[in-house]
Amino acid sequence: MSRPLLITDCDEVLLNMISHFAEWLGEAHDLSFNLYTDSFQKAIRTASGEALPEEQIWPLLDGFFRTEMERQNIVPGAAEALAAIGEHADIVILTNVGDEHEAGRIEQLGRFEIRHRVLCNRGGKGRPVKELIEQMQPSAVVFVDDLAVHHESVATHAPEVWRLHMVGEPKLAAVVPPASHAHARIDDWSEAARWIAARFAEGPASLKEEQE
């Protein structure tokens, strides 16, 4: 029988990013970032207090990933949880950074002893999740991400996937509501690992839900 599959995001699930991004914005660009909001469009402000135009945000994120990945630290418990899960399941890290950052992401994760397949993506994650399932034919799948939009995308394209909403940055977790298209919200990896193991044992989510 095929092994189960964990598909997990990286930033704010495996590695803290946003707090380091906020520090860098202040140091390098004289911009402030409000960690107590879940909206990038509202969070980044100029020195005069004006919201930064959206078209200027994505180049800043790209610049951070080009030069500042070494700032990022591991979310507590993430490496240990993946090590335990990896004994019984396949793991793919589905990260929304450009292909040009793939090598840096792999090297970055390796520093924390996380060595699994890394798949770069742009946009919604539902289609790449569906493609991974078609390729790997797992017995069950759990998807972990901090952004509600990706849970909705996966629910649309791959409803058989169990969806776990996790926000690894405590300041963000305090203000981000549970994703409505996720099956559960857990921000602690030790508890999440137990939940993931239980879902693997149940099989595909859509089959379980139909039985209920």
Short descriptors:
alpha/beta, 10 strands
How would you describe this protein?
There is one protein chain. The longest helix has 14 residues, at 54-67. The model has no long low-confidence stretch (mean pLDDT 94). The protein has ten helices and ten strands. A six-stranded parallel β-sheet has the order 7-6-1-8-9-10, with helices on both faces. A two-stranded antiparallel ribbon has the order 2-5. A two-stranded antiparallel sheet has the order 3-4. Strand 8 (141-145), helix 7 and strand 9 (162-165) form a beta-alpha-beta unit. The protein is an alpha/beta fold and 212 residues long. Helices cover 44% and strands 16% of the residues.
User: Globular, elongated, flat, extended or rod-shaped: what is the shape?
Assistant: globular
The multimeric state of the shown protein is: single chain
How many distinct helices?
A: 10
Portion of residues within helices: 40-55%
As a percent range, the share of strand residues is 15-25%
